[in-house]
Amino acid sequence: MFVDIAKIRIKAGDGGAGAVSFHREKYVAAGGPDGGDGGKGGDIVFVVDNHLSTLADFRYKRKYAAENGQPGARRRCSGKSAPDLVIRVPRGTLVKDAESGRILADVSGKEPVIIARGGKGGWGNQHFATPTRQIPRFAKPGIPGEALEVVLELKLLADVGLVGFPNVGKSTLISVVSEAKPKIANYHFTTLTPVLGVVRADENTSFVMADIPGLIEGASGGAGLGHDFLRHVERCRLLVHLVDVSGVEGRDPAEDFEAINRELAGFSPELSGRDQLVAANKIDIATPEQLEAFQAYIAEKGHEFYPICAATGQGAQDLVYAIARRLKDLPPIREYEPDPVPQEELIQKTGRDFNITVVGDVYMVDAPWLVQVLGGVDLDDYESLQYFQRVLRSSGIIDKLEEMGICEGDTVSILDIEFDFIR
Q1: Based on the structure, what is the number of domains in the chain?
Q2: Co-location of 199 and 304 in the same domain
Q3: Is residue 239 within a helix (H) or strand (E), and if so which, with residue range?
Q4: Neighbouring C-beta atoms of residue 295, cutoff 10 Å
Q5: Each residue's pLDDT tens digit, 86-99
Q6: Structural domain containing residue 370
Q7: What are phi and psi of 277, to 5 degrees?
Q8: pLDDT tens-digit readout, 282-306
Q9: b/e 337-353 (16+ beta carbons within 10 angstroms → b)
Q10: 335 within some domain
């Protein structure tokens, strides 16, 4: 099954919590704090796998989560960092943020791409010792890993795209000029998925050709199969527009040519300006008058014209040579520039948000990420409580409480822990 778009949820690993520990050893009166740091959470990494040609695997597994870093330990032992989670995708896969549509990465090269970064490990209490704070009874929790929903979109990497109405001979042509073996039959929509073939012009020149399933009028608006596969034309450096010049199906070649170009422009304005070669197919059953009229029409449009008969191979090699010559003057296959999600948005996506409601005279703070913070805080220790207050201030919770009109002495409830508000 050819699948070229999928939506998945990814979650990088959380950093491990720092440890609260004190060195204890016989004959050592004051060993001091020795809590180790937490380990880093695993990243979510995308890499190219040339053995994959579709995104079908992502239809069955939609959630990917890296491991969390290990917590710190006593004796200044740091927790183990978690391994990265590697996700393998076909070459040419775009990774987009599902919410904003931003392109996070174009996974087309050899280098792995980090999409979601694991959280850093929290500091152990050894880092908080000062001359005036010699017994810190708190540590930092690990930072949550980045989490987001992404859309994977496969855009095939091909130098040349074959476009045209169904049953004009695209599959026959690619089978003649390359080793590709698409299904060929005399009915519309024989080709249901894009087909790639490597075409060799000579010993030193080759290019990749893609047979795009037949477009029909209205394809850019969702009609037929073309809408599903037009995205694969976007990377092509050159388009070969195949037209049935014989008119055996009762269609006008010139009208077909204009209709397909309208669909390309309707899908992406950039495609309307893409370089094109026009191949007039089925010349063996076309009349000389039909061929001459269409050739004159294409000449007026300013495109190169090549008459061929894909079924017999007539003219196919001349077309291949022309394609190779044109490709030498064209830029390389397009790669999309990433547009990463701003850090502020990522912080919100990883659960750093909170909600405050007033129940009676109690201000209820709902912030699940505070569980980790409270895990490293000793509520019986004054300095530890000061640290907790700084976290509440930096996260914006205290500012929100003040905005809601809280007064000194009012009750605040956080994760079933109640305390009086003090400015």
Answers
A1: 3
A2: yes
A3: strand 238-244
A4: 16
A5: 999 999 999 999 98
A6: 351-420
A7: -115, 145
A8: 999 889 999 999 999 999 999 999 9
A9: ebeebeeeebeebbebe
A10: no
